[in-house]
Design brief:
Blueprint lengths: L1 E4 L3 H19 L2 H19 L15 H19 L5 E2 H10 L28 H17 L4 E5 L5 H12 L6 E5 L3 H14 L2 H4 L2 E4 L6 E9 L9 E5 L2 E9 L5 E7 L2 H14 L8 E3 L4 H9 L1 E11 L1 E2 L1 H4 L10 E4 L2 E3 L10 E3 L2 E2 H10 L6 E4 L13 E2 L49
Parallel strand pairs: 1-11, 1-17, 3-4, 3-6, 4-5, 6-11, 12-16
Antiparallel strand pairs: 2-8, 7-8, 7-10, 8-9, 11-18, 13-14, 13-15
Helix pairs in contact: 1-2, 5-6, 10-12
């Protein structure tokens, strides 16, 4: 399993470091190089958030048809709240906003990716990202042999699959099957049209769309770019030392509001696990996100994967950085028409909702599913980490289907530092699962 951090921010920081080195080396003046870098970053920030026009930072209101669409979904959510004793967990609210059939953000037909949509992911910005990631896929596929498969989770616009398959063809590393697990019927059709138009028929014939992960035993590579950040996430807070879960309710005028309810045993145990791992209890009023279901999700999407690799690319932090005291309201945010804002209850179904990834939790989930953690790096470091390494074989006997076994806290760390010496998520808190320890309190 390999984890790549930093879809946008880490890439920008890597570029800044490169410019600083070039400036210092070329001019022979470190100070002058730093000034140039700061000026470049200032121009970047200016273009992303023009401060001379406050209205430019506010997303324009949706058109009447879009507002009607949103209100239809909002009415459905209100009805579910009324039927659930007046409140639903925020994770359920997020699930409905993103995935409600026909009305959720990823289920409806609006444009989501690129300049005309709400955000831009790396595959939409050019071919370099997909070509680089394809080099990682090729290493595993060539080692596994011609029967190997690729499973891409959430294919976006199809831009990644197009470049990846063309690059794998050049490298003589085409998989036996290239499957896209895409829950959105609308995105699935857009992907099909894009790939049919851009791929030659023999290559396009390798592509298939799945409703669920592979159900048979398989060898290959699972690839996910900006998927985990869109998993519906619970939100927690603390009152008098007790764990509460954030819910969504209605005020007297039927508007969505946030309320807190006592957390169930799973979420409460997961919060205590984070406190134990970081060695720092959360202060009263601290609020953030946590995915106690992540180990079960990883096991489900991997399915019968016997030998190969899982490559996750997303934005987030190692656990000790994710839950810093100053990040006291978490990482949850909304994207609408290229604007990021914090009003996540506004316009259900019209805006993307996302939370950053706890990479330590992801590493724990992968090792708990029977994989070895082989790498963790920023996106800017990914090309340098492409080395001919045989794919990992899943450790049978440490993964028991249906048990949801996760890594035991305090178990031996799995490769505590990367090849470049950089600490892996959680500063070594990515334990190797020990069979027979059972399910820990998470």
């Amino acid at each position: 399993m390999q984890v790549v951090q930093g879809e946008v921010v880490a890439g920008a920081m890597q570029a800044a470091r490169d410019r600083r080195a070039d400036a210092a080396g070329g001019a022979g003046d470190q100070g002058d190089g730093t000034v140039r870098v700061m000026r470049d970053l200032a121009r970047l920030c200016w273009s992303l958030s023009p401060h001379d026009d406050p209205d430019a930072r506010r997303p324009a209101a949706p058109d009447p048809l879009a507002q009607q669409h949103s209100e239809t979904l909002a009415a459905h959510i209100r009805a579910e709240i009324a039927a659930s004793a007046g409140a639903i967990p925020f994770s359920r609210f997020m699930e409905l906003c993103l995935y409600a059939p026909g009305f959720g953000y990823y289920s409806a037909g609006s444009t989501k990716f690129g300049a005309a949509g709400d955000f831009v992911t790396a595959p939409e910005q050019g071919r370099l990202f997909a070509a680089t990631a394809s080099g990682v896929l090729a290493i595993a596929l060539q080692a596994l042999g011609p029967h190997a498969r690729v499973l891409e989770l959430g294919g976006g616009s199809g831009a990644f699959a197009e470049v990846a398959l063309k690059r794998l063809l050049q490298l003589d590393a085409l998989p036996d099957r290239y499957a896209i697990l895409e829950p959105s019927a609308d995105l699935r059709e857009r992907q099909r049209e894009h790939l049919a138009r851009t791929l030659t028929p023999p290559v396009f014939d390798l592509v298939e769309w799945l409703d669920r992960p592979f159900e048979d035993d398989w060898d290959g590579v699972l690839f996910a770019n900006e998927v985990i950040d869109a998993l519906p996430t619970p939100r927690f807070t603390l009152r008098d030392g007790e764990v509460f879960e954030e819910h969504v309710a209605l005020d007297g005028e039927g508007r969505f509001i946030r309320v807190d309810r006592p957390a169930d045993a799973l979420l409460a145990a997961a919060v205590r696990h984070v406190e134990q791992a970081t060695g720092t209890p959360f202060a009263d009023g601290y609020r953030s996100e946590l995915l106690p279901q992540l180990p079960y999700w990883v096991q489900a999407v991997a399915g019968g994967l016997r030998s190969g690799a899982m490559l996750f690319l997303d934005y987030g932090y190692p656990r000790r950085e994710y839950y810093l005291p100053q990040r006291s309201d978490g990482t949850l945010r909304a994207f609408y028409r290229q604007h990021m804002h914090e009003d996540v209850l506004r316009w259900p179904g019209l805006q993307d909702l996302t939370a950053s990834v706890d990479f330590t939790a992801l590493a724990e989930a992968g090792t708990g599913a029977g994989f070895d953690l082989t790498g963790y790096c920023s996106q800017g470091q990914l090309p340098a980490r492409q080395r001919h390494r045989p794919p990992a074989r899943r450790r049978r006997g440490t993964y028991r289907r249906g048990r949801g076994d996760a890594p035991a806290p305090g178990a031996q760390a799995a490769d505590p530092a990367g090849a470049d010496g950089r600490a892996l998520p959680g500063d070594g808190l990515c334990p190797r699962y020990r069979p027979g320890r059972g399910v820990p309190a998470r």
